[in-house]
């Protein structure tokens, strides 16, 4: 079937009940860092983009702990609001860590086998057809090797993912079976990374584009059948832990198995936000020029004061307003 769903995880960092619950567990577990919980107040532009640029999407599964944006029209026929308790083990809730929520996405009721996972900081900025995400019933992706270390922001989780991959698969066998997917003209100069890391017999990691990620639900089911204990452990993790695995495990599994179609990522960009970039107009131009299909605007602790944050939010909203000025059917 040609049905493709979108899945979005969202949290309202300003919700008082949610903050009280979070702070109660923070006191017990010592987690720090607020940037990943801030609401940039621009989610409606993602929904406007869905309506304008990807009208072919079957369902949009909007996953929250219960709170919803005030502007959201819950009655939209393409919208499926999913509470954490509807697909997660209730004994593990609440969680303030995206990893448990991500690795259990396949449990969402009526989720299509082909779906694209969006973070709430990933955006579509121009027309995108189905074939950008799936071809011949396989996800479109790039397989670029990388040398991962635990010093990176997500290094511990990715290393855990890669260790699991090496337990179940041989890099050499993967290359032999999928040589045209390991080395492909669409990767351009990035092929040099695969060549440089060819002498290593084990998987050393992959470059992550940090963009809307296409998945097969069957991939989640396969990995869960083999690594149930590990995944169950992450499912109980209320805050990020060095022992966690994350959604990249399923992406890496698809890559190593050759269950994907090679694609160029030149139409996407990952940006870590800063006031310098925002005030320079570079971020606004990335959005309004519509040269990119997809853009990730990653929050940063460098934007510290409330004044800076409000200024940053307005700059981004003003840019999106230029390309998506009209309310969508998802808005009241």
Shape: globular
Roughly how many Å is the radius of gyration? 20 Å
Q: DSSP strand (E) fraction?
A: 5-15%
Overall tally of domains: 1
Largest sheet, if any? 5 strands, mixed
Q: Cα distance, first to last residue?
A: 32 Å
Provide an overview of this structure.
With 332 residues, this protein is of the alpha/beta class. The protein is 38% helix and 14% strand. The protein has one domain. It has helices spanning 16-29, 43-53, 84-87, 98-103, 155-168, 171-177, 179-182, 191-196, 217-226, 228-235, 248-257, 275-280, 282-288, 306-323; strands at residues 5-9, 60-64, 79-83, 114-118, 122-124, 134-135, 138-141, 213-216, 261-262, 268-272, 294-298. The chain has a five-stranded mixed β-sheet. Helix 5 (155-168) packs parallel to helix 11 (248-257). The model has no long low-confidence stretch (mean pLDDT 93).
Key traits:
alpha/beta, 14 helices, 5-stranded mixed beta sheet, 332 residues
In short, what is this structure?
The protein is of the alpha/beta class and 332 residues long. The chain contains 14 helices and eleven strands.
Question: What is the element layout, followed by pairings?
Answer:
Blueprint: E1 5-9, H1 16-29, H2 43-53, E2 60-64, E3 79-83, H3 84-87, H4 98-103, E4 114-118, E5 122-124, E6 134-135, E7 138-141, H5 155-168, H6 171-177, H7 179-182, H8 191-196, E8 213-216, H9 217-226, H10 228-235, H11 248-257, E9 261-262, E10 268-272, H12 275-280, H13 282-288, E11 294-298, H14 306-323
Parallel strand pairs: 1-2, 1-4, 2-3, 7-9, 10-11
Antiparallel strand pairs: 4-8, 5-11, 6-7
Helix pairs in contact: 5-11, 13-14
């Amino acid at each position: 079937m040609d049905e493709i769903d979108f899945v979005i995880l969202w949290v309202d960092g300003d919700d008082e009940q949610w903050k009280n619950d979070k702070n109660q567990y923070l006191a017990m577990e010592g987690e720090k860092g607020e940037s990943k919980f801030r609401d940039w107040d621009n989610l409606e532009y993602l929904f406007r983009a869905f309506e304008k640029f990807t009208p072919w999407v079957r369902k949009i599964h909007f996953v929250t702990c219960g709170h919803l944006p005030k502007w959201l029209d819950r009655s939209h026929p393409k919208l499926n609001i999913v509470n954490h308790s509807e697909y997660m083990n209730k004994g593990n809730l609440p969680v303030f860590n995206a990893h448990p929520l991500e690795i259990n996405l396949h449990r969402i009721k009526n989720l299509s086998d082909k779906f694209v996972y969006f973070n709430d900081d990933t955006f579509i900025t121009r027309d995108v057809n189905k074939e950008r995400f799936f071809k011949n019933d396989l996800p479109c992706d790039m397989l670029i090797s990388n040398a991962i270390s635990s010093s990176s922001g997500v290094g511990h989780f990715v290393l855990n993912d890669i260790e699991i991959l090496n337990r179940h698969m041989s890099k050499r066998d993967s290359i032999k079976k999928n040589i045209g997917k390991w080395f492909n003209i669409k990767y351009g100069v990035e092929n040099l990374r695969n060549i440089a890391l060819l002498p290593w017999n084990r998987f050393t990691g992959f470059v992550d584009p940090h963009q809307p990620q296409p998945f097969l639900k069957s991939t989640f089911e396969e990995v869960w059948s083999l690594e149930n204990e590990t995944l169950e452990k992450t499912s109980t993790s209320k805050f990020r832990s060095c022992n966690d695995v994350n959604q990249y495990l399923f992406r890496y599994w698809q890559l190593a198995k050759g269950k994907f179609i090679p694609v160029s990522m030149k139409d996407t960009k990952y940006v870590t936000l800063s006031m310098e970039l925002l005030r320079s107009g570079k971020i606004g131009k990335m959005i309004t020029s519509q040269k990119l299909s997809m853009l990730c605007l990653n929050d940063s602790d460098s934007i510290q004061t409330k004044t800076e944050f409000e200024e940053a939010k307005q700059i981004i909203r003003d840019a999106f307003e230029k390309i998506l000025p009209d309310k969508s059917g998802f808005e009241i």
